[in-house]
Design brief:
The complex is a heterodimer of chains A (545) and B (602). With 545 residues, chain A is of the alpha+beta class. Chain A is built from 18 helices and 11 strands. In chain A, helix 8 packs antiparallel against helix 11. The radius of gyration of chain A is 23 Å and the shape is globular. With 602 residues, chain B is an alpha+beta fold. Chain B has 2 domains: 127 residues, Beta Barrel (Butyryl-CoA Dehydrogenase, subunit A, domain 2); 345 residues, Butyryl-CoA Dehydrogenase, subunit A, domain 3. In chain B, the strands form 3 sheets. Chain B has a 4-stranded mixed sheet. In chain B, strands 2-3-7-6 form a 4-stranded antiparallel sheet, with helices on one face. The longest helix of chain B is centred in the middle third of the chain and has 37 residues. The two termini of chain B are 31 Å apart. At the A-B interface, strand 7, helix 9, helix 10, helix 11 and helix 12 of A face strand 9, helix 8, helix 9, strand 11 and helix 10 of B. Strand 7 of chain A pairs antiparallel with strand 11 of chain B, so a sheet runs across the interface.
Chain lengths: 545, 602
């Protein structure tokens, strides 16, 4: 059990001040429960977003994702509002800022105060290149004019990382610069009225209005014109972490539904005796574990193979929310009418379900990730050296922003490790049908990528080209699971690989019934023994609602 | 609350529809969303609907209402849902509450109910209970017969003829309009033992109950349709007269199952309305959004997502239309068709809404950005449709229980069968009167849509011009459907037959079967109406059929990417329809705008 699990306590314990009742009541009021925020304050969570070199506790991306898991599992608004969006802002500073700027950001985060990340303009969405907020040079200051929208914590943050146009259009991708803007001073931009959001209700989403707002030139992050370059690096880290935001909510949701099925009777049986219910619970667990594997591997790539970071993070951020949203959908069918109630023992599920719709979209959603992968796909899918098996428990290699690249330099070592693994005829009889499907998919992906035209490498990409990025992402997920088969192929892994193969090839590949049953049994065991549905099987304090 | 009907109330559904369209066009989406945010019932708007007399569409003409053409009633419900699903559910619930009486009530009961409904009084359907969910055979609410002396008759073992009335006892929960409604149609146990003959239906007017003998439960806060009155009703030995019994004692379950055949098809119109709204919001966004120097709709991948969603919508519309028309001409098949539609239509539209949400991005979740409504509100409101009146699993179980009669037996088809199938798929053909006595619990002679599928592929081949690029695509898709049905016929024979512990593979088979039924419905709609449709882009080159069959195959798990030209053509048609303020539909009559003049067909 992590100390955060202990601090947050059993969500269903009626005496737990940080339990679901309080979380849901706050959510109804469009707030994050103050209590849960103070728990994170007393834990000193802000330090988790600050690298050790700057006095914080961040050492590895994977560790941060694991720490955030119970936080998002309690309340996604809390996870985003307390820290993730601040982290997204800070990463830009770690990537491009001067030492004094990094130190300032570190101090803000460690005091538990948020920083906003202000890229987004309502009219331009993910097309940052078109962003209109202007920063005009005026002696030793810049004057900023324009509006940023849907910015978390814009009305509470101490400062904001702002993406602004500093050059004329057509300057070849060097038209924008990043600024660290103070939000507390007399000349600061004003926060616009809070958006009425239908999900993540506790997040304070508003905007920032800049009217000739003066910002010192020394507040620019990195050299003029380097905003896009910086963003493409910082997004690699924040996308990976954001992809992991869904793990906690799905874990909690699976627990709630598993509990429901063992208490609910239908047609004279426990719901949990019905084959299709068992299948849904088993599949949910398998998909959740596969997602965690993929995210862990993508996080490791950032540290040990940073030149492939842009591809792996984009792949994780693209496919994991889709897979997990599908899990939530299937679980909601099992819960039936109770899924639709905002009160009652299963109401946390409904909140997570709603918040998921936003998590899946937030922060440079699906298509932007696919577009990040496309230009690299030909190179990534060529045959090349396989990565060595990952040495998972060793000391984390520090994250080096300078080593992050926009484009991968060569064949994807993880994809090649999968290829080699399949080719070496692995001895897992339960997976006999899966290997040829995966092998076929790898080959098809390679030949598909080889025929991509220049128009297919950018925004004019065809649906077929976009589909290739989905194949690539799914195969990386498969690689992550294969890497954890070890000697005895755990049932969840066998089921997960069948499901990934189904998605990748578009055909039906049912896992053997005993595999489904064994995976389902594992779900029940963890439910009753107070174990999370994660790779480490950590102990968690939770009683069945 | 009595509605003051318009003095010159509409004499036909068409006329009502025009007035309704004008009323709905005046509704401000922002007001709708403000009410929703406050969990408030749309009182003003439902009263306006009552004054217009929309509830007359829930009452058969024979009893003074406007219901004689089922698809007409469906179109009304669809237009309500297009504005606000909460409104459609809040107002249209009365149809669901009343339908059991239309199926099985005596004339006196039906006339009385008809008068109440036309006055604007709401009727709920009291089926579900707190610990029982969708298993109607396990309800605890019971009705104990009492004789004229007020003594319990030995009733739950054998029904006494001198029952003067019944004492209702127990709680019905998650009942729409239980609190605001005037009456509730309650399923209650009249015999011990949990047998299929142990339940009866009662039409209970709350105003007739002793005040101390019943209560309503608090409103439940819900994920979607937040303003709806989802509450409940408790009975504490509440006396209802024998005249409240609808149909015969012990026949409650059978009546409900037949009534569900009607309501499930009506629910598909709810889905279509929600889908109309979602496509309008997203289509206009995609058209107007400029990025990377062009519109979002100009980007092939985005355009494909939108057009595939349009195709799914058209498939759903084709199936719903055939199902609704079949109520008139092939009522014996409804036990299959209603279940197939109630599974396929809402779940397909749910899928589409997710795709559209991803296309729209952040705007889909923020209220008040555009003027047309927030996409996620439509999505979460729509999510109720696959939950009530038989959820996903219940409908798939129905199909599974019918595998033998649908897939393993060959049924002889008469000329009358052929004729009826044609009428069910020909929009212009007049429909015979609804005869609810012909509803049956099993489709004894199979499903016409499945029986004709192979033959229809041959007809398609003849009908389509082989020079058209769509020709090959459509035929390929159609042949895949035939092949799938053949495979299902074999595979389903090998499955375990336990009716409770149904294997997952059976569910997959049922899902695929429903998609084949939908595909067949689309083919029949195409074959039977193409001569009558103006040569508009949606029908030429079988464009819409390409889009619809692509979806049907995708639901089966077969990938057939749409030809690029068809994606482009589909996009132009969708924008054209949205540009004329039409809702997306197969049956668009250009120049009519679907609002003022011109006959709206679906």
């Amino acid at each position: 059990m992590t100390s955060l699990d202990t601090l947050l306590g059993d969500p269903y314990d009626p005496d737990n001040a940080y339990g679901v009742t309080g979380v849901l009541e706050a959510d109804e009021r469009r707030e994050i429960m103050a209590g849960t925020r103070s728990v994170l304050d007393s834990y000193g969570f802000g330090a988790e977003f600050v690298p050790t070199a700057l006095g914080g506790r961040f050492t590895s991306t994977e560790r941060l994702i694991q720490l955030l898991r119970p936080v998002f599992g309690r309340d996604a608004s809390l996870g985003l509002g307390y820290g993730l969006t601040s982290f997204m802002a800070a990463v830009n500073v770690y990537a491009a800022g001067r030492d004094d700027q990094k130190a300032a950001v570190a101090a803000t985060l460690m005091s538990g105060t948020p920083i906003s990340v202000a890229y987004h303009e309502l009219d331009h969405g993910n097309d940052f290149g078109a962003n209109a907020l202007q920063a005009t040079d005026d002696a030793d200051i810049y004057r900023l004019n324009g509006t940023k929208s849907v910015i978390n914590n814009a009305d509470r943050a101490a400062s904001a990382v702002v993406f602004a146009r500093t050059g004329a259009s057509g300057s070849g991708g060097r038209e924008h610069s990043l600024f660290l803007v103070d939000l507390d001073g007399p000349d600061s931009p004003t926060a616009t009225p809070r958006h009425r959001s239908l999900a993540l209700r506790g997040c304070r989403l508003s905007g920032l209005d800049f009217r000739n707002t003066p910002v010192a030139s020394s507040n620019m992050l990195g050299a003029p014109g380097t905003a896009v370059e910086t963003a493409l690096k910082s997004f690699q880290v924040s996308r990976c972490v954001a992809a992991g935001a869904g793990l906690g909510p799905v874990d909690e949701s699976l627990f709630a539904v598993a509990g429901f099925t063992s208490r609910r009777r239908l047609y004279g049986r426990d719901l949990s005796d019905l084959p299709h219910v068992q299948h849904t619970l088993a599949a949910a667990f398998a998909d959740l574990m596969a997602a965690e594997c993929m995210i862990a591997d993508a996080a490791e790539t950032l540290h040990t193979r940073p030149e492939f970071g842009s591809a792996h993070s984009a792949a994780a951020k693209y496919i994991v929310p889709r897979v997990l949203e599908s899990v939530m959908s299937d679980l909601s069918v099992v819960l039936g009418a109770r899924f639709y109630l905002r009160t009652g023992p299963y109401a946390l599920f409904g909140k997570h379900y709603r918040d998921f719709a936003a998590l899946a979209i937030g922060h440079a959603g699906g298509a932007a990730c696919q577009l990040a992968i496309l230009p690299q796909l030909k190179r990534l899918t060529t045959r090349g050296d396989a990565a060595a098996a990952s040495a998972r428990e060793s000391e984390p290699v520090p994250l080096n922003f300078a080593s992050l690249r926009m484009l991968s330099p060569g064949p994807d070592p993880v994809l090649n490790r999968l290829r080699v693994g399949i080719e070496s005829a692995p001895k897992h009889p339960a997976l006999a049908e899966v290997w040829p499907v995966l092998a076929g998919a790898v080959t098809e992906l390679r030949s598909g990528a080889a025929t991509l035209t220049p128009q297919d490498l950018g925004v004019t990409a065809s649906a077929a080209a976009m589909r290739l990025t989905e194949q690539y992402s799914l195969l990386l997920m498969a690689a992550a699971v294969v890497d954890r088969l070890d000697g005895d192929a755990p049932p969840w892994a066998v089921l997960a690989l069948h499901r990934i193969a189904e998605r990748v090839a578009g055909l039906r590949l049912a896992a053997p019934t005993h595999v489904v049953l064994e995976t389902f049994t594992e779900v029940l065991r963890r439910t009753h023994e107070g174990r999370a549905f994660d790779l480490r099987e950590r102990a968690v304090p939770r009683t069945m609602p | 609350m009595t509605a003051d009907l318009d003095l010159d109330h509409a004499v036909s559904v068409d006329e009502l529809e025009h007035r309704l369209a004008a009323l709905l066009a005046s509704v401000d989406a922002a007001d709708v969303e403000d009410l929703d945010d406050a969990d408030e019932f749309p009182t003003e708007l439902t009263e306006a609907l009552n004054r217009l007399g929309v509830q007359r569409c829930y009452v058969p003409t024979r009893f003074g209402g406007l219901l004689d053409d089922y698809p007409d009633a469906g179109r009304i419900v669809r237009s309500l849902a297009r504005t606000d699903v909460t409104l459609a559910v809040a107002h249209g619930k009365t149809f669901l509450g009343a339908v059991s009486a239309w199926v099985a009530g005596n004339d006196e009961q039906r006339q009385q109910l008809a008068d109440l409904v036309c006055e604007g009084k709401q009727v709920s359907w009291g089926l579900t209970e707190r610990s029982r969910g969708s298993d109607l055979l396990s309800g605890d609410v019971h009705a104990d017969a009492i004789d004229v002396h007020g003594h319990a008759t030995d009733a739950r073992v054998g029904f006494g003829q001198d029952a003067d009335g019944f004492l209702l006892h127990g709680e019905k929960w998650l009942i729409n309009n239980a609190t605001r409604g005037h009456a509730v149609c309650v399923l209650a146990r009249t015999r011990d033992g949990g047998s299929a003959r142990g339940y009866s239906l009662f039409l209970v007017e709350k105003s007739e109950l002793g005040a101390a003998t019943f209560g309503t439960l608090p409103k439940e806060l819900t994920h979607g349709i937040r303003g709806a009155d989802i509450s409940g009703i408790t009975f504490d030995r509440a006396y209802v007269p024998a005249s409240a019994l609808v149909g015969r004692e012990g026949h409650g379950l059978e009546i409900v199952l037949k009534a569900l055949q009607l309501t499930r098809t009506m629910c598909c119109y709810l889905s279509l309305g929600a889908s109309d709204h979602a496509l309008a919001i997203t289509g206009r966004f995609v058209r107007d959004r400029v990025l990377y120097g062009r519109t979002l709709g100009d980007l092939p991948a985005a355009r494909t997502v939108l057009v595939e969603s349009f195709g799914a919508h058209l498939l759903a519309e084709a199936l719903t239309t055939v199902a609704a028309r079949s109520m008139h001409v092939l009522p014996g098949e409804q036990s299959c068709l209603a279940a197939a539609s109630k599974y396929l239509v809402p779940s397909t539209i749910e899928s589409t809404m997710i795709d559209l949400r991803r296309l729209m991005g952040a705007r889909s979740l923020l209220s008040g950005i555009g003027t047309e409504g927030t996409l996620y509100k439509v999505e979460r409101d729509h999510r109720i449709v696959s939950l009530f009146d038989g959820n996903t699993v219940v409908n798939l179980n129905t199909l599974i229980s019918q595998f033998s009669v649908l897939l393993w037996k060959k049924h002889a088809r008469t000329a009358e069968d052929q004729h009826n199938l044609r009428v069910s798929a020909s929009i212009g053909a007049p429909l015979p009167a609804l005869d609810l006595d012909r509803l049956s619990l099993i489709p004894r002679r199979g499903l016409g849509l499945l029986s004709v599928l192979a033959e229809s592929v041959r007809e398609l081949d003849k009908a389509l011009d082989s020079r058209d690029s769509g020709h090959a695509f459509v035929l390929d898709c159609a042949q895949e459907l035939v092949h799938t049905v053949e495979t299902l016929s074999e595979e389903t024979r090998l499955l375990g037959r336990d009716p409770v512990e149904v294997p997952t593979a059976a569910f997959v088979a049922a899902e695929q079967l429903a998609a084949c039924i939908a595909g067949s419905a689309a083919i029949q709609i195409y074959l039977n109406n193409r001569a009558d449709m103006p040569s508009d882009a949606l029908w030429s080159d079988a464009l819409w059929l390409q889009l619809a069959l692509h979806t049907a195959l995708a639901r089966i798990g077969i990938r057939r990417p749409l030809p690029l030209d068809s994606v482009d053509a589909g996009y132009r048609v969708l924008l054209d329809q949205l540009g004329r303020h039409s809702h997306p539909t197969l049956f668009d009559v250009p120049g009519s705008g679907n609002v003022d003049d011109g006959r709206v067909i679906a």
